[in-house]
Amino acid sequence: MPTILTERPTSSPSASPATSSTGSTPANGTVSGTARRSDHKVILLGFDLGTNKSCVLAGAPGSADFAVSKVIPSVVGYVKEGIVDGIITGNQRLLFGDLALQNALHAELVAPLAEGIISQQEAARDFFHHVRSLVDPTGQAEIRAVVGIPANAGSAARDSIRQCAMGSFERILLIPEPFLAALGFREDGRVGQPGYVDPVTNSLFVDIGGGTSDLCLVQGYFPTPDDQISIPFAGDAIDSLIMDDLNRTYPNNGLTRGRIREIKEAHAYVGAIRKPIDVRVILGGKAHTLELGEVLGRAANTLIDRIYPALTSLIARAPSDGVVTLLQNIVVTGGGSQIKGIDTVLQQRLVDDGYEAPKVRLAGQDYKRYVALGAIKAARSARDNQWQVLLG
Question: Is the domain of 350 the same as that of 256?
Fold first, then answer.
C-alpha cells in the first residue's frame, strides 16, 4: 500500500511529519532519541485528542483489527485530600474520563486542553499515561501514536504535545484532524469504483470540535498551511453563549456548564428561530420548564456565521479544474456536525451565493471515530523515517 502522507513539492518543511528515526535531532528542533529495542512488541495508536472527548483506537501493525476502541472524556480528576477510605474505588488518587466525572464531588477536575491545544501540561501527561495503560497494560510495548491536531496548530502547540507524550509513547506523528477525518471517512473498498469520489482525493472537510472548528482542503497530499483554516470557535464557545444568554433570561438559574452542554447536544439547531423548545431542568431540587428555542438558535447560528467565510475562502483556493467535484464533496464532522440542520443551512448559503450545485453532507453518527480511524490508517502506512522518536 503506498503511503498516504504524500506532500506537494511546494509544501514547507514545517508541514511535513517526516523526521529521522535514527536518533538524530529532527529539523523542527524537537528532542529525539533511541526507541525501544526492535524485538519489543509494537502497538499502533490512532489518537483523536479532543478538547472534550478523545477517541483511542489501537492495534498491531499487521492487523486490521482493533485491540482497543474507546471514547474517553478528556478530563483528569485529582482526588481531594481527606476523602474517606472506600469512597473512591480502590482509593485511587487519579481518575480519568467517565470515572472522573462520576466522582466530581470528590475530585478536582482538570481538562488538559482548551481551544484544541494543551493548556494544562501536568494533566495532559497524566492523560497520555492513562491512554498508554489502556493500549499496553504491560508497559513493555513500543507505542507508535498518530495524534490529530487542530488545523494550522503552531510550533508551540505541536511541541507541547510532544513534550507531554514523552514517557508514554515511543514514536509520534502529528497530523491535522480534518485530513485524518477524511482518511477515516474513506471507504477503502470502494476506492476506484465508478461513481465513487474518494474524499482523500478531492474534498473539503469541516471538523467542528469542542475547542476549534477546523476546515481543510483534502486533495491527495499532506495539507499545507494554505489548505487549512482553524477557528477558535466551536462547541465550548456555543456553550458560553448559551450560558450568558440564560443568565440574562433566567437569572440565578443554577445550571452547570455540563448540563448546558447536554441541553445543547440534545436540542441545538441552526437556521430560522424555532419556538417553542421547552426543556425540563432541575433547579434547587425542583423541576422547571424553560423555553430555550431562541437562546439555542442564536448561539448555534453564530457558529455558521464564523465558519461560512472560512469555507468560501478555502473553496476559492482550490484548483479551478477540480472545484466542481470539490463542491460535491463537502463533509461536516466532529461534535458540531450533530447540530440540527447544519448541513442544510451551509448548503443553502452556498446555493444562494451562486456556487455550482454544492452538496454538504454529514459524517454521520460514527463521527467520533473518524479522526482516530484515519490516524491509525496513517500509522499503518507511515514509513519508519516519518516517525518522530521521543525520549522518555
Answer: no
